[in-house]
């Protein structure tokens, strides 16, 4: 027992060491991370962009010092917990030390390393999917009602993290109906647990109701602007890449539910996988939405392969080979899949190897969108700081941005104490003060065109622009506008009111 858990601790430590060395210092935080951090300053029962759990994590990050370390710590932690859940699932399935090591390696050196780079709800989401499936395994084995309660609680917390968890439930319910586990629907405890879960998420549901269900508006926008560019064939192809390092183990996991007698009682998980995947395909979901489906099947595959190799292939070198494969594949894809090299080198190598990257706009670009979203922010904040400090009356100056990435990055990287960048984009619209006294404006625009504002200030001039061509914000321009008239103030206030009501229509 001591040997097993020493191994587990070693794997978790290795996870953190690798995770914190996957991002080259040339990169900064990513666009979405800035928004999530600022949510910690505005705790609420709901947000336009994500449910409220991320804001609670951000509040803790702010209390811990709001450094890059803590921003990167939490997704790494959730990835580590996912490994622990798979480990416990393997133990529940009677796997030995080899199965534990094999399963852990397949999870450790998977797409989760990439997912856990960014401070987004996705890392917690995958962890929650895996835990709920683990609860199902435990319930099937022991029929202890506490696992129904734990699954319901996990669903509620996961719902408050990312609404994507609803798709797991949509796939799981019909799977339960067609399997012998359908008897769960005759158990009163299921409905009490569901009621308890509903009570946990009720404040967020009420917030959605009060604000006209902005999540629905957000989903419509997502469908129109991003999901419309998702090709179903590409979605299926990318599913193979998430655990390509452990593909043999994953496939074995699926087959074990049909060909290994002790695992046939868990087929409900396979049916749930199929139903959920069909829903994602029908909705043209982004490929990474489905990552949470896979870790639990790694557990089944690792145990079954341990049994097969022990019985029939004991004298062969396949056992160590299966553990080495995930590590080798990770090393091979490391230069291409992770931002360990500076952006210029990645672009040069991508051009040399004829590699392109498709962004959410459906177009090909020389660098991955996430990487491009991690460049140029410090440059922007420095320009704004310089412009702010040159104004004679900075206390009467607002910083107004086109998008949430600009506003969040300035708030995070600015060296000037009194700067609080604003925007009418995303959640920032709801944080805009009801009454604001100002006469000067530092205007951050996605381009170098200033049309509406130019006639409403005594003087307007360019203070600088982002010059890094690899940054997604390349060309973003900072204008300094001095001495506003009353009409532009009214226009801005009207724009904010319109933005606040945007998701209520």
Task: Give a structural overview.
By secondary structure, the chain is of the alpha/beta class. The chain folds into three domains: 2-337, no CATH class; 343-372, no CATH class; 377-504, no CATH class. 58% of the residues lie in helices and 7% in strands. The chain is built from 21 helices and seven strands. The strands form two sheets. The protein has a five-stranded mixed beta sheet. Strands 1-2 form a two-stranded antiparallel sheet. Strand 1 and strand 2 form a beta hairpin. Helix 1 (2-19) runs antiparallel to helix 4 (68-92), helix 2 (31-39) crosses helix 3 and helix 19 (377-390) crosses helix 20. The termini are far apart.
Q: Briefly, what is this?
A:
By secondary structure, the protein is an alpha/beta fold.
SSE diagram, text form:
Blueprint: H1 2-19, H2 31-39, H3 53-63, H4 68-92, H5 97-108, H6 112-115, H7 122-142, H8 146-159, H9 165-178, H10 188-210, H11 214-225, H12 232-242, H13 247-259, H14 267-282, H15 295-312, H16 318-337, H17 343-352, E1 357-358, E2 364-365, H18 369-372, H19 377-390, E3 397-401, H20 404-413, E4 422-423, E5 440-445, E6 457-465, E7 477-484, H21 486-500
Parallel strand pairs: 3-4, 3-5
Antiparallel strand pairs: 1-2, 5-7, 6-7
């Amino acid at each position: 027992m001591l040997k097993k858990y020493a191994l587990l601790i070693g794997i978790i430590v290795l996870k953190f060491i690798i995770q914190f060395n996957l991002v080259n210092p040339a990169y900064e935080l990513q666009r979405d991370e800035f928004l999530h951090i600022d949510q910690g300053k505005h705790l609420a029962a709901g947000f336009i962009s994500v449910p409220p759990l991320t804001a609670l994590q951000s509040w803790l990050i702010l209390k811990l010092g709001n450094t890059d370390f803590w921003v990167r710590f939490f997704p790494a932690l959730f990835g580590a917990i996912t490994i622990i859940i798979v480990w416990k699932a393997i133990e529940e399935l009677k796997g030995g030390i080899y199965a534990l090591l094999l399963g852990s390696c397949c999870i450790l050196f998977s797409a989760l390393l990439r997912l856990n780079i960014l401070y987004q709800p996705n890392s917690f989401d995958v962890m929650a999917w895996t835990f709920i499936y683990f609860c199902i395994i435990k319930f099937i084995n022991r029929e202890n009602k506490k696992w129904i309660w734990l699954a319901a609680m996990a669903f509620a917390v996961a719902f408050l993290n990312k609404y994507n968890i609803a798709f797991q439930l949509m796939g799981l319910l019909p799977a339960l109906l067609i399997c012998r586990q359908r008897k769960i629907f005759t158990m009163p405890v299921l409905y009490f647990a569901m009621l308890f879960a509903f009570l946990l998420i009720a404040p967020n549901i009420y917030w959605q109701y009060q604000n006209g269900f902005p999540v629905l508006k957000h989903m419509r926008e997502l469908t129109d602007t991003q999901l419309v560019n998702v090709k179903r064939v590409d979605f299926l192809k990318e599913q193979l890449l998430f655990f390509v390092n452990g593909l043999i183990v994953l496939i074995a996991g699926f087959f074990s539910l049909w060909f290994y007698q002790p695992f046939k009682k868990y087929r409900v998980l396979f049916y749930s996988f199929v139903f959920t995947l069909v829903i994602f395909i029908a909705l043209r979901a982004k490929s990474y939405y489905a990552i949470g489906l896979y870790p639990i099947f790694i557990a089944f595959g690792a145990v079954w392969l341990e049994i097969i190799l022990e019985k029939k292939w004991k004298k062969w070198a396949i056992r160590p080979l299966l553990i080495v494969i995930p590590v080798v594949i990770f090393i091979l894809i490391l230069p291409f899949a992770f931002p360990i090299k500076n952006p210029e080198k990645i672009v040069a190598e991508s051009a040399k190897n004829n590699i392109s990257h498709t962004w959410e706009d459906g177009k090909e670009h020389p660098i991955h969108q996430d990487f491009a979203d991690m460049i140029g922010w410090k440059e922007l904040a420095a320009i704004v700081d310089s412009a702010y400090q040159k104004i004679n009356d900075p206390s009467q100056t607002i910083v107004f941005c086109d998008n949430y990435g600009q506003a969040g990055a300035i708030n995070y990287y600015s060296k000037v104490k009194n700067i609080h960048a604003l925007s009418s984009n995303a959640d920032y619209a709801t944080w805009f003060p009801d009454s604001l006294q100002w006469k000067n404006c530092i205007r951050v625009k996605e381009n170098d065109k200033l049309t509406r504002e130019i006639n409403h200030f005594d003087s307007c001039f360019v203070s600088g622009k982002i010059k890094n061509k690899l940054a997604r914000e390349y060309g973003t321009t900072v204008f300094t506008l001095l001495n506003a008239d009353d009409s532009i103030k009214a226009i801005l206030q009207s724009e904010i009111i319109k933005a606040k009501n945007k998701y209520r229509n």
